[in-house]
From TrEMBL:
The lineage of its organism: Archaea, Methanobacteriati, Methanobacteriota, Stenosarchaea group, Halobacteria. The keyword NAD does not apply. This is ABC transporter substrate-binding protein. Residues 81-439 form the Solute-binding protein family domain. One of its GO terms (biological process) is peptide transport. It comes from the Archaea. InterPro entries: Peptide/Ni-bd, SBP_5, SBP_5_dom, TAT_signal. Coiled coil: none annotated. Pfam families: SBP_bac_5. One of its GO terms (molecular function) is peptide transmembrane transporter activity. It comes from Natrinema salsiterrestre.
Amino acid sequence: MSRQMSELTRRRLLGSGAAVSAAAIAGCIGGSESDGSDQLHFTQEQSREENFDPVISNDAYSFQVIQLIFDGLYEFDEGLELQPKLATGEPTVERDGTRYIFEIEEAAEFHNGEDVTAEDVAHSFTAPVEEETENASSYNMIESTEVIDDYQLQVDLGEDPYGPFELQTMGVTVVPKSYRTEDRENFNKNPVGAGPFEFSELQENEYVEIEKYDDYWGDLDPNIEQARFVAHDDAAGRISEIRAGNTDVIAGIPNDDWSVLENEEGVTLHSSESPTYMYMAFNCNEGPTTNPEVRRAIAHSFSMSDFIESNGENVTSPMYSPIPPVVNEIWEFPEDEYQDMLPEYDPDQAKSLLDEHAPDDFTPTIITPEGIRAQLAERIATRLDEIGYGADVQVLDFATLVDTYTSGNADDYQMYLLGWTGGPDPDYYLYPLFHESGAGTNQGHYYDGSDGFHEAIAEGRNSAGQEERYEIYEPVIREIVEQLPALPAFTQDNTMASRNHVQDLQAHPNVNRNPTLVADYTNVSLE
């Protein structure tokens, strides 16, 4: 399933991974083009935490391995629509959207030969909460589960429906209860799933290997016999490896390297718009940026579209609200209206508003991680300087950034740049990033909002039906765009580059489903 991932820790999608030395990489990559093997070599853009138990794993790069070893009750297709996998079809929904009855495929088996049963699915739903894992928030709305028989499971929510349940929670990755609970530590490093590939070998901090499972219960028959995952968080190193043919596929193409690889003989580029939300948030807790006119002035001071065109045209897409475009395609919020509401580049208006509403010596502190967001912070500082103000840009490591932006202290910052990756439900973005419960944890903006703002976000979470939830969420999104506690910046694409002997590779919108080696819509092979 799609994991909700913030930037509070290195685990999260857009966090900073631990470095892997070039020497270590050189010893364990090299694809079929160079050595004639039938093994696909995939170079990941950040280091894994090496947690391969889906109950506890909250790391996109470990989950890229997990998604090939395990099957979900439901899984996201290439359009981010949830499709039955271990479930026989859609669940039966009763009790006003608070009871779900699932039927499990009777043919499904784990790699150890045991049947996938309702008890296994129930354990997969409840273990994250019972064991207090980092994934607990994705399942803590479940009040109880009842095994009706070996292949039917009843799941009861609390008194209220949980709106994101059908787009988030019921996509649970299913683990074998008895095998897992026998030795959870061993299971985390030697997992057994029901997917088309089985775990083969782990050399921690070096590589992990999987191989095709010949007795897979489903209809999928992978063309790939084996795959090796190696992490290389140095972008220049990844680019060098794919150009030299020393790996089959790399993930994470920097904007400036896109045109280089586009013109590289023997290399194919792959890209998919992702459900990411990159933003600049304002300190609404204290200081000059508590005034929305100051926030609008800063938004007027630079051109986001010009920045995207010059710094991220190949690997990003513009955003006009906290809902990524790929998610908006499903919900159809009026994105064009939001775009018209956002302040356009107007340095004269920016200066006029700051002269009226900001202190004479206003030089805001912008804290940011390195990379494209630091480039954006520097662009804003330059444009503010041009109208007589300026800004102090502080590029921080993630640990320091987290400790700083959650303080709400105007002495620490007036703006910060971060990102969030979710799934196809607005709740992924609105509740953790704007509901008051996230202040000081996922949020450093501390936005009070209008009367009923936070109540509406909670109501949307506890309502059933997309139409009803649309009507609740639309005014919330409109207020965020108008009042600018956070200015939407861009959504990052999931990008990969492969050697041309890799056939039928596609980039998935969800980063932790890359590479999708086999699915109803693709079957990767080495020619």
